[in-house]
Write a structure and sequence with these properties.
Blueprint (H helix, E strand, L loop, with lengths): L4 E5 L9 H11 L3 E4 L6 H18 L2 E5 L2 H7 L2 E4 L7 H7 L5 E4 L4 H9 L4 E5 L15 H10 L4 E4 L8 H5 L4 E4 L1 H4 L4 H14 L3
Parallel strand pairs: 1-2, 1-8, 2-3, 3-4, 4-5, 5-6, 6-7, 7-8
Length: 207
Amino acid sequence: MKLRGLYAITDSQLLAGKFLSYVEAALDGGVTLLQYRDKSSDEARRLREAEALRNLCERYKTQLIINDDAELAARLNVGVHLGQTDGPLSPTRALLGSKAIIGSTSHGQIALAEQAAKEGASYVAFGRFFNSTTKPGAPSCSLDLLDEAKRTLHLPICAIGGITLDNAAPLVEHGVDLLAVIHGLFGAQSCAEVTRRARAFNELLKI
């Protein structure tokens, strides 16, 4: 499958009380990848929520990605996104098989992305590009980095970090395939607004 489009990422606090309704509203607007991101240690709830998301994603033909938890991804037969602290990617590729989508955080470093590509990553993520409420301390990236990534990597490129409808266009112009969005999508006042934003992000990517 072609990895291009909106990459929606959940946030348990932001979505408290409206988790599934807002996720479904985003899926209705068109989402290429949906990442379940939950940093809590409540494994039973995480399994329950991930299963609910998998069922929703199957209905909307969207790929579910689990953040930082290859075992949960293997259990649900879905993809995973690994950060730099999660160790090498190769064992995860062996665990999940050749068809699974595995993403890798590369921060602002082409060398990290090249290493991830060698180890079997499906896409690489660079960021943050703008001020991010989720990761305020993350180092910032430039548009020049995207130009270099496009020249040297032969993988879909994902941008993350403070992305909104107002600032996303230059990222697309510099070769980004996936726009990873949390607050810029789910920080909306209604389900209808979430759906509208999802469609607008995809419009930027000409999906």
